[in-house]
Structure formats: structure tokens, C-alpha cells
Amino acid sequence: MMTTALPQKMDDLVTATPGRNCRFCGAQLQRTFVDLGMSPLCESYISPDALGRGEMYYPLHVYLCETCLLVQLEEFESPEAIFSDYAYFASFSDSWLKHCEKYCAEMAERFGLGSESFVAEIASNDGYLLQYFVRKGVPVLGIEPAANVAQAAADKGVPSLVRFFGSELARELAGEGRTADLVIGNNVLAQVPDLNDFVEGLQILLKPNGVLTLEFPHLLRMIERNEFDTIYHEHFSYFSLISTMKILEAHGLRVFDVEELKSHGGSLRVFATRAKSGSHRVTSNVQKVIGDEIAAKLDTCEGYEGFARQVKRVKVELVEFLLKAGEHGKKTVGYGAPGKSATLLHYCGIGKDMIEYTVDRSPHKQGKYLPGSRIPIFPPDHIRQTKPDYVVILPWNLKDEIMEQLEFIREWGGKFVVPIPGVTIL
Ligand SMILES: [Zn+2]
């Protein structure tokens, strides 16, 4: 197997290397949050004709900036290489689509969006979200760097620009008078290497009283619930509300509300507007979430210690379970091929010897192999045909939905294995 965490001594050497700087405040990064060893780019699914070739691995070493408390990975590969042929089509999860439809209805009502408004979404993917505004007659623009998914959006009637977003594009749009009443950045902030340029762009794209909403996995929940597999190369930064507010404020934005969501194992939806805007009073939710973070000591370096130990415990539990199941002649397979599975499998050193295959609903992944572990990906029906004893749910954030879809494995006594926050057999 390819990876385990680096030995302590080497770890210290790596940490002492100069020239590694915080992507927000520029301070030198010296404190390790967690070191998950080496891992390939998690969305680089392997096609059968590439099985004879090697793969690039990059260090998955996460740092905490001691100055601004931003948790972050170094950038090893350009965003162009990662996202230009991105295989992830957002429209393949039912519960996610419901979440998006509800969001659009809420925003339209709260901020009075209609045919005179303009909504822009950054990283709009295949139009999974903006389609609900289009149905309400609200003019939209999607901005999406991956040409294949942007085309799928256009087919849904969602106009999309195939561009990377930053201050330059925002200035172009603002110059054409195309500033927005609502700017949406859902699950994109983490994927931005040049954070300052990106947030500056968000500010430029807003109308004077426009609203920005950002959704991202909440670092507090990631630490509490041991969700270390949400760390992967495509996610450069991991945010608390404390660090997010600092970043937004540095670019003339003010947070006025925050909602705690269940998505992605516990996310935040942050509402911001221009600091100068007289609209949008600050709600008590902001102080509540900040209070939770302070209670967990996330306002000091202390709150970030201990995560690495927690993560190691999952590795021991999961590998022990899989090895024992194998010894007892049980057949174990996976469900799903999400990005996060790469981190879990590599950090734990799990390959085909422990998980025979996985399945995924996305036809873009079927017939391919998971990066690194080379576990084959089949259509979901393969489970019915091969009757495994255990199905490991890799996208554990969707476990209720998946268990409902796969209820039929009970017919032959099949069980589900949920790896995070600790190994659970259901
Ligand atoms: Zn910093």
C-alpha cells in the first residue's frame, strides 16, 4: 500500500522548511494540523487503458496558520489541471438537489428576487442550483471553469461562462453593468488557491446592497466529528466562522447572518454584504456560532490540537474491521466514489484486498478505477448481482439516502459499514 503518515522525525524536517506561507495573511506556516501522508488527486479516476501507467502523488499535509488561524493545504497542482476535466456532476444526488431547490425558494423570498434581479453563481457546475432560479424567471449567470459540466448547464437553460473566477472577471462583468443582487459561492471557497483575489472578486460582483452567500464544510464540525476525509488536494482551505469573517472583512465585506446546515457532515451558510451597505441587520446566529467556536477554543491554536490522534484511531478501527472480515471469508465492497474516498482509502492503506469494488450512480465514473487504490467502479446494480456481506458507505454524509436505496441487501443478511466518525456497523 502506498501511504501512511510520515515518521515524526521527517515530519519535523518538513515543518522546518522555509518559504511556506499562509494563502490569506502571508505568515509563515509552521504548525501541522494533521499530516495524512501522500495521496493522488482525488478526482483523477483511472480509465482501463491507463492502468499500466503511474500516478502522481502529493503530500496531504495540513497546516494551521498561527497568525490568522486559517487551516490550509499547500497548492501542488494548478487549478487548471485539477478542474478543467472535472468528472463531478452535481446533479446525481437527490438529497442535494432538494437542498438546492429549498435554498433558491428561501433566497427568492427573503431578498425579493424576481425578473428584475440578477443572480450569479461561482462554480455553477452543471446548473444543478441555478435551474431553480431559471424556473422562477430570475435572470442568472453561471461561472464554471470545467467545459464539460458547463455544457450540461447550458443544456438545462442555465447560461454559463467557462472561466475561472477572480477579481479580473468580476471587473469585466461589473464594467458591463452586470453586478448581482445575489452572488452564490457554494462549496467553492475551499477550492480556491488565490483566496484574496477570489474574495475581492466576490465583493466587486455585488450590487451596493447585494447579498453574498457562501457554503462550506464547518471546520468545527470536521474536528468534532472526525471528518478527516473531507481533506483532499482539491480543498485548499478549511474554514471556521472566525477565519471566514477575518477574510471577508479584509475585502470590505460584512457577515450579517449564518445558518448551520447538515450537508457535507455539517456546513455553514454565511450571508455577507458590503461593509458600507446600510441594509441587512446582523442576526443573533452570528454570535451563537462564534460562541460555539470559542467554546471549542478555535480562537487559539489549542483548539486544533488532538485532531491527528482522533484520525489515527479511525484508521486502526477500520483496517482492523476489514482485515477480520476478510479472514472470516466475508465479501466487502464499497458504495460511492466521492472525492473524499481517496483520502480515507490512502490514509488507511486500503486497496482491492480489503474492498473488492465500489459502485457509483454517475455513468462518468462507472467502468473506471479509483485513483491510487485502483478499486474498480461498477454501476450500483453490481451489488444486487454479487450479494456482498458488507457495504462500506464512502459518502457517509449521504448514508440515510444510500441505506434506503440499498435496503435490499438485508435480503441476504448484508450490512452497512459507516467509517466516520468511528466505524459503525448498521
Ligand atoms: Zn494566515
Q: What structural category do the secondary elements indicate?
A: alpha/beta
CA(first)-CA(last) distance? 28 Å
The main pleated sheet reads as: 7 strands, mixed
Bound molecules: zinc ion
Number of strands: 17
Strands of the largest sheet, in order across it? Answer: 6-5-4-7-8-11-10
Low-pLDDT segments: 1-17
Helix content: 25-40%
Count every helix, treating DSSP H or I runs of 4 or more residues as helices. 14
Question: Which band does the percent of strand residues land in?
Answer: 15-25%
The geometry reads as: globular
Q: Measured on Cα atoms, how large is the radius of gyration? A: 22 Å
Summarize, please:
The chain is of the alpha/beta class and 426 residues long. The protein has helices spanning 8-16, 79-83, 94-110, 130-135, 147-155, 167-175, 195-205, 219-224, 241-250, 284-295, 307-327, 339-348, 381-386, 399-405, and strands at 31-39, 58-64, 71-73, 119-122, 140-143, 160-161, 180-186, 206-217, 237-238, 253-261, 267-274, 332-335, 358-359, 377-378, 390-393, 415-418, 424-425. A 7-stranded mixed beta sheet has the order 6-5-4-7-8-11-10. Strands 14-13-12-15-16-17 form a 6-stranded mixed beta sheet.
